[in-house]
Structures are given as C-alpha cells and as structure tokens.
Design a protein that fits this description.
This protein is α+β, with helices and mostly antiparallel strands. The chain contains eleven helices and eight strands.
C-alpha cells in the first residue's frame, strides 16, 4: 500500500470512528447557502478534529500541520466529502490566511496567528470586496493610515459580501495606505480585529432568506502597526496570492459534493417520473459528463481561473435542472413563512456561483490576458 493509500485509509477510519454520537447529527450540515446550519455544533466538531491533528493537514509540520503532500491533501478532501462530514467553519483561516502568512508573514505574525487557526480558536473573514470594488478589486477605497504615534493602523471604509464576518474574530483587509495612490499601487494587507469599537457588522439577507455574508463598516478601527502582511504598499501581490490559495486543492473535495448532488437529483427524477422526459434525461447525462470532465481537469492541475469558470457554470446549471426535475412543486415553499427544500435552496444560492470568488467576466479576462496572451481589455 502506498503512503497516499495509507493516508486515505487513516482519515477514512478516523472519520468513521468519530462522526458518531452528537457529531453524527452534523453529517451533511452547512456549506454554501447553508452556513447557518448547526454552526456551534460544527465549530465543536472542527475543534475535535484539531485535538486529533486533522486541521491544516497541508501546512508544514513546523506550523502545526501534517506536511501532507498534494496527493494526500486530495485524499483528505475526498474522504471528508465522501463521509458527508459537516462543512468546515474555519476554512477561511485554514485555506486562505494561513497559507498566506506562511508564505509572506513575519515570524512574529506566524507565531501569533497560526496556532489559533490550527486549534480553531480564532475564526477569520476576508475583507476584499466593496460596494464600488467587487470584481474590480483594485478600486478599493477603504483606507488605512498610521496613528499619530505610529503604533497603529487606523482603518476607515466599508467592505461587502464578507462571508461569516458575523462569526469571525479577525478580518484580513485590503486597504489603501498610500495617499493619492491609484489602482494596484499603494494597497496594504492588514490584519484587523473585529471585536472593537469602530467595527460594525451588518448581515445581508440573501434570496434563500438566510444571511451568511455581511457588510462590514470600519470607522476608526485600529490594529497594531505590525499587523501588515509583507511591506506596506505590497498588498496587491499578497491579495492575489491569497486568491490563488482560495481556488486550490480543496476544490477537489467539492467535486465529491457535486457528485452527491447529481446522484440525488437523478434519484429524484426516477422517483417522480421526470426521468421519462427525454430532455431531462439528456440534461442529466450531459451534467454527468461535464462533472467527470471537471474532476479530471482538477486532478490534472487545471488553471484556477479555468476551474472556477467550469464548476461555477456547472453548479448553477444543476440548480436550474433541479427546478425542472421538481416541476411545478419547485415554485411552492416547503413551509411557512419561507421554508425552502434542498433543491430550491441549491437553485437560489447557486445563482451566486458565477459571481463570488471572482466573477465569470473577471475570470475570462484572466484566461484571455494571462493564459492566452491576448491584448488587455481597454480600460478608461
């Protein structure tokens, strides 16, 4: 048995032994559009994982991880999804900020912030998008300025679509710290505590009736002068590196979840007779083919922007197909006042798949300009 197969067997056995008792009730809970589900229970589960050394498996051993290889990380995410384990609550800290600090952070920052991420003691959110700087991230207007005594950064501005900010203790914020700078220049990557005067978090109600992302207002919020990752003014390069981590290996586990959704939809079509419609059958088959192609591309190491375009369009299309499989029942709420079933929630939330984590339009520009070498889009 290879080391990867041994690693896969180890995590599979551990999940089977530990997703029991109170944790068994968490199977399948949480995830995009459902982050409100059993949040405290999922937090307890993830701390249980941490106590047994199963968080941050891809991090270097010296930073609290297992030093797992790429193949072992793929195995971990696949087995986690196959076990129907609950959606992670610490993914922004573990998969985005942690790798960023390991690559660019000072030793002081690593010592301060990495251990609480490994232990799931501090949760993080991502302060990137703003009302006038969504996909056009370089247009951020949130400002950071040094306090008169030079000991702190003072942050003023607004962020939006900030996932799980209402549950997080910290936010990594892209802010303009050089007066008069424009676009990519003059930005810094600041680590800002949320539990302080000068920070207001307002949940945003989604189409699903739930709230998992937020507006965050900074009005004289402060953080220590040492809490800038890299050099002041180098925030764009570091922010882009974080986005690369965001679209990394964990998406392979996502494919397993997609397969489970496809299986469930195909089973529903058989039960309610929709499978008898040749157009429905054809769309189900095409969705299966596309899912196989997507999984093969992910294992081959497809460019993150290409992968994002593929899975976002596929998942949104699956939501649309689900409504057609459900038929007229898809238009009726499952209960009062606005209780949605699984497929209705999938359809509504998946409308956002082609927008968040980099909109389709931006991803296509990246593919055209950086991968294909086409002329840059004309900008005013």
């Amino acid at each position: 048995m290879s080391s990867v197969e041994e690693f896969r067997a180890e995590i599979r056995a551990w999940l089977a032994d530990h997703l029991v008792g109170e944790f068994a009730e968490l199977r399948g809970r949480g995830g995009p559009g459902r982050e409100h589900e059993a949040f405290e229970g999922r937090l307890a589960w993830e701390r249980h994982m941490a106590a047994h050394g199963w968080t941050c498996v891809g991090w270097p051993v010296e930073h609290g991880g297992r030093g797992a290889s790429l193949e072992e990380q793929i195995a971990f995410h696949e087995e986690y999804a196959l076990a129907d384990a609950p959606a992670r609550v610490n993914h922004i800290g573990e998969q985005l900020l942690g790798p960023t600090l390991i690559a660019f952070g000072s030793e002081e920052q690593k010592e301060r912030f990495l251990p609480p991420i490994v232990a799931v003691e501090e949760l993080w959110c991502q302060g990137y998008s703003e009302p006038d700087a969504g996909s056009d991230l370089a247009n951020v207007r949130t400002r950071g300025a040094l306090s008169p005594d030079g000991s702190q950064w003072v942050v003023d501005g607004q962020k939006i679509w900030t996932s799980l900010a209402h549950e997080a203790q910290w936010c990594f914020v892209v802010a303009r710290t050089e007066s008069g700078s424009r676009r990519h220049a003059g930005l810094s990557y600041l680590l800002v505590p949320l539990d302080q005067p000068g920070v207001e978090v307002r949940p945003i109600v989604q189409l699903t009736g739930t709230s998992e992302f937020n507006e965050v207002f900074f009005d004289g919020a402060r953080t220590d002068v040492s809490h800038v990752v890299g050099e002041p003014g180098d925030g764009w390069r570091i922010a882009m590196a974080t986005l690369g981590f965001e679209r990394g290996v964990s998406t392979l586990g996502q494919q397993v979840g997609f397969r489970r959704e496809w299986d469930g939809l195909a089973a529903l079509a058989r039960r309610n007779g929709a499978i008898g419609d040749p157009l429905i059958r054809d769309r189900l088959v095409q969705a299966w083919i596309d899912l196989e192609a997507m999984a093969a591309s992910a294992r081959r190491g497809v460019d993150p922007s290409v992968g994002k375009l593929h899975w976002a369009a596929w998942h949104r299309g699956l939501g649309e197909l689900a409504m057609d499989v459900c038929g007229a029942a898809s238009t009726i709420a499952a209960g009062e006042p606005y209780e949605l079933d699984y497929w209705q929630r999938l359809f509504l939330f998946s409308r956002a798949d082609t927008i968040y984590a980099g909109s389709d339009e931006i991803q296509k520009n990246i593919v055209a300009e950086r991968l294909l070498g086409l002329p840059k889009e004309a900008r005013v």
